[in-house]
Specification:
There is one protein chain. This protein is mostly helical. Strands 1-2-3 form a 3-stranded antiparallel β-sheet.
Length: 315
């Protein structure tokens, strides 16, 4: 029977220090938890535990003589003034070509390179959004009770203000969705390749090849589920708006009409799209019809709200 290795004391102390530094960074960066979102306390706790685990494993790895020698020689070469004078652009060029653009993968296939880029930058974008939000380093506050102007606070400092209804505002509030699309596209290509190409199928291992891709797909899907939950909250706001804008005696009938319109919206468009695709072999006309109906509804709603506001002003 294989004996379990006892915990390494130095690695444990280093990991505990890393966890304490992470917790202190959360406290200081959020200005004493002033900008910290209590809903994300579970994620913040998990991040502190992650810091402990990563540093512990790294410290155990460095404790072995070969790894320690490799690490020491690497830092000596990196900090060498002689190497910097001989190759001053080596490090920035390597970061750009090998880490950022990953040009060495492009030589093995353009499709594989594009998938790697989507996966890499999708994860980077999600990391740059998720961790600052979780730590309370990044916060959004509306200047008014209803918006649409929002201000971004970074480490408690007021930075820029943007319109939530603009294209920039849409991109900011859907940053995680955009990152999820990139990750899902990259993972989809690699999963397709592992099931389709024999060379990838014979050499893959479940724990190192297949399982990480499935995990990334699952994590990215959470972003879309969160977006669906937000859309559900927006649907509830529609019914709340009915109670504020419609006379009390008509709330029931108008609410039923809104519910019926929602039911028809989920029932008729798929049928229309299917019929259009069968007739033309393309979804373009069906999508144009949906956009035209949505635009007509927007114009009608704006006209009715404007007429109602004018009538209320005259009375």
């Amino acid at each position: 029977m294989r004996r379990r290795r006892p915990p390494d004391l130095r690695a444990s102390l280093a990991a505990a220090a890393a966890a304490a530094v992470t917790a202190a960074a959360i406290w200081l960066g959020s200005r004493g938890l002033r900008y910290f979102d209590a809903v994300l306390v579970g994620y913040a706790t998990a991040t502190v535990m992650l810091a402990f685990g990563v540093v512990y494993r790294y410290a155990v790895w460095v404790s072995s003589p070969p790894a320690r020698c490799y690490l020491r020689r690497g830092w000596q070469a990196f900090l060498s003034w002689r190497n910097f004078r001989r190759l001053p652009t080596a490090v920035p060029r390597s970061l750009l070509t090998y880490l950022g653009l990953q040009t060495f993968i492009r030589e093995r296939g353009r499709g594989r390179w594009v998938a790697h880029q989507l996966l890499f930058w999708g994860v980077v974008l999600a990391t740059l959004i998720t961790f600052p939000l979780t730590f309370g380093w990044l916060a959004f506050f509306s200047d008014t009770a209803t918006g649409p102007a929002y201000t971004i606070y970074v480490l408690g400092f007021r930075t820029v203000t943007f319109d939530a209804l603009s294209l920039l505002g849409w991109a900011i509030f859907h940053g995680l969705d955009l990152a999820a699309v990139m990750v899902l596209a990259g993972c989809g290509y690699f999963l397709w390749r592992r099931f389709r190409h024999r060379e990838a199928t014979t050499g893959q291992r479940f724990g190192y090849d297949f399982f990480p891709l499935v995990g990334l797909v699952a994590i990215s899907t959470v972003a879309f589920l969160s977006m669906a939950a937000a859309l559900g909250l927006g649907n509830g706001a529609v019914f709340a708006l009915v109670g504020k804008t419609v006379p009390a005696v008509q709330v029931g009938s108008v609410t039923g009409l809104v519910g019926a319109a929602g039911g028809l919206g989920g029932f008729l468009p798929p049928i229309v799209m299917g019929l259009v695709f069968q007739a033309t072999g393309d979804y373009a006309i069906g999508l144009m019809l949906l956009s035209d109906v949505a635009l007509a509804g927007l114009v009608f709603t704006a006209w009715r709200l404007g007429a109602g506001a004018a009538q209320a002003a005259r009375t």
